[in-house]
Each structure stands twice: as structure tokens, then as C-alpha cells.
Design a protein that fits this description.
Layout: H1 3-16, H2 29-40, H3 44-51, H4 67-77, H5 116-119, E1 121-122, E2 128-130, H6 131-135, H7 137-140, E3 146-149, E4 163-166, H8 177-180, H9 185-194, H10 197-213, H11 220-233, H12 239-252, H13 260-265, H14 267-270, H15 274-281, H16 286-297
Antiparallel strand pairs: 1-2, 3-4
Length: 305
């Protein structure tokens, strides 16, 4: 029997006894549609029209909703809030019929499109389709949650309410070579937004070169330390020369290649005397020192690209 019919019958019975009857809130299709429309951002009219279509067992209103949205829907279904989001007194709470949640897992991309060509993407069902998402789909995919409730063979909830919710579990994570060697997604994103095009190209070339030759991929600090160590082993630098090497090391924190032109054009190096000063400090051997340093910086263990 529909709620409205029950209320009419109760009102007539009260009137026959000379009593006053106050009808409870009518939790009909309009009531449900109004609440779900507010929470899920779907037009109320659209929801009401779909409720009239009985040729489908159910209709999935919104897939992969955020946890906060799901929690709000659950409170509405349990009668804890009304369609406007107001708290309902515990004595007046009635669980809605015919509406339920289906827990699932959801994949997150914390840095948007960064390295998207490598990471790939998932389809509308959350299955990896391209890139690492496809290759390691079984590893990355979590376990979907589920809800156990009391229903009859037709799928209709029984008179007594019973519901047990099992939350979804996260899948495993992948640690990429760049991550493992100190190249984090945040650092790469900063490099993309802050560095010049020529600097990015030089960095990309160096990475590709190392992968092609099978040599070790190291962080920037490790790369610089190795190059300066080898340079020092091959020379006996004076204190004045060591001071300039420290200046070069600081400069190289934001560069990928050291060029002689940098001493002539870079304002930071020019303020310290530029090419003429450095050339004098290194006894007119600056060009060779720069070339040797770059060789150590991108040394490939004797291999050549």
C-alpha cells in the first residue's frame, strides 16, 4: 500500500473517532528525487521521469561518486536528513525504499596530465586501457566494496532492516624508476613550468641517452657530485679555482649543460667577472675544463650513443 493511501486511511480513522490527525512527511518519488538531485547534481525532473520507467530493474544515477557525496546519500537513504539536508529527529527517521549505494574502487591521478603518455588511462569501468594502467591493471586495481542487505528474490528490501557495508580496498602502488632515484612527480612538474625549453630538451636527451645505453639513472645531486669528484681527481686546483668550482656547482643546480657561452651571457656569472675572470683563474684553460666537466657529467662508462 502506498504511503499516501496509508495516510488517507489513517486520517479517516482518526476523523471517525473525532481525533486530530497529523500526517507524517510523505516520502514519495518527489521527496526522493528532490534529495538525490541536491546531493548528486542531477535534475529533479530527470530523476522523477526515470522512476516511472519500470522496464529496468534499476538505474545507476552516478558512477564513482566521491566519498563525501556517498556519505551524504547514505544519510539521506537512512532518513537522517531531509531533501534539503536538514537533520531529521531520530524518532521521525524512516529508511527510504528502492535506493541503495553500490561501493566501488576509483583511480586517482594526483598530478593531472603529468607523464600521461606513460601512465596511460582507465576506461569508464575503471579498467586500465593504455600504458602502465593497462600493463599493471591487476596490481593497481583495488577490491570493490559491497553491501549485504536483506532482500527477497525480486530484490525488494524485506520488512526488517539489515545492512552491513564492506568498504573498498586500495590496490597496490607502482614506484617508477624516476621516483626511486629522486625524480618525483612534483619535481618534474616544477621543471616543466619553470625551466627553459632548451634546458628541458637537454635533460630529456640525457635521460633517453642513459636508458638507450643501459647506464644508471641518478639524481641531479649525485650526477654533479660524481662529475666534480672526477674533475678534482684529475687536477690539483688552487683555492681560487676551487672557489670558482663551487660557484659553477651552485649554477649547475638549475642547468643541465655547462657551456663557455654561459660565462659570457649569464648575468649571475657576469657579476663575478664572467668569462675573462674565470679564464684568468683557470690559467687560460677554462674551455678545456668545461669540456672535461661535461664529459664527466654525462659519462656513459665508455659507451657512446
Amino acid at each position: 500500500m502506498q504511503q499516501k493511501e496509508k495516510q488517507e486511511k489513517a486520517a479517516k480513522k482518526a476523523a471517525d473517532k473525532g481525533e486530530t490527525y497529523t500526517a507524517p512527511i510523505l516520502r514519495d518519488q518527489a521527496y526522493i528525487a528532490k534529495g538525490l538531485s541536491r546531493i548528486l547534481g542531477v535534475e529533479q525532473e530527470t530523476l522523477e521521469n526515470r522512476m516511472t520507467k519500470t522496464n529496468y530493474d534499476y538505474w545507476n544515477i552516478k558512477k564513482r561518486a566521491d566519498q563525501t557525496v556517498s556519505d551524504e546519500v547514505r544519510r539521506f537513504i537512512n532518513g537522517e536528513i531531509d531533501p534539503d539536508g536538514n537533520e531529521v529527529p531520530e524518532s521521525d527517521r524512516v529508511k527510504l525504499q528502492g535506493v541503495w549505494l553500490q561501493p566501488s574502487s576509483k583511480r586517482y591521478y594526483l598530478y593531472g596530465s603529468l607523464a600521461s603518455g606513460i601512465l596511460g588511462f582507465v576506461n569508464s569501468d575503471g579498467v586500465g586501457s593504455v600504458g602502465l594502467e593497462a600493463k599493471y591493471d591487476d596490481t593497481l586495481t583495488g577490491t570493490a566494496g559491497y553491501t549485504i542487505s536483506a532482500r527477497n528474490a525480486a530484490g525488494t528490501e524485506l520488512m526488517y532492516n539489515y545492512e552491513q557495508i564492506f568498504d573498498a580496498e586500495n590496490g597496490h602502488s607502482l614506484v617508477l624508476t624516476l621516483d626511486a632515484n629522486g625524480f618525483t612527480a612534483l619535481q618534474l612538474n616544477d621543471a616543466y613550468s619553470e625551466y627553459t625549453n632548451s634546458t628541458m630538451v637537454a635533460g630529456i636527451i640525457s635521460l633517453i641517452r642513459r636508458y638507450m645505453l643501459g647506464t644508471e639513472l641518478v639524481s641531479k645531486n649525485s650526477q654533479l657530485s660524481r662529475a666534480f669528484d672526477k674533475l678534482n681527481k684529475n687536477h690539483k686546483f688552487t683555492p681560487a679555482q676551487q672557489k670558482w668550482l663551487d660557484i659553477i656547482r651552485s649554477y649547475m643546480q638549475q642547468q643541465d649543460i655547462l657551456s663557455v657561452e654561459a660565462f659570457k651571457e649569464d648575468k649571475r656569472l657576469q657579476r663575478l667577472g664572467g668569462y675573462a675572470r674565470a679564464q684568468k683563474i683557470f690559467a687560460d684553460d677554462l674551455d678545456n675544463i668545461v669540456s672535461e666537466f661535461n664529459g664527466y657529467l654525462y659519462e656513459d662508462g665508455g659507451k657512446t650513443a
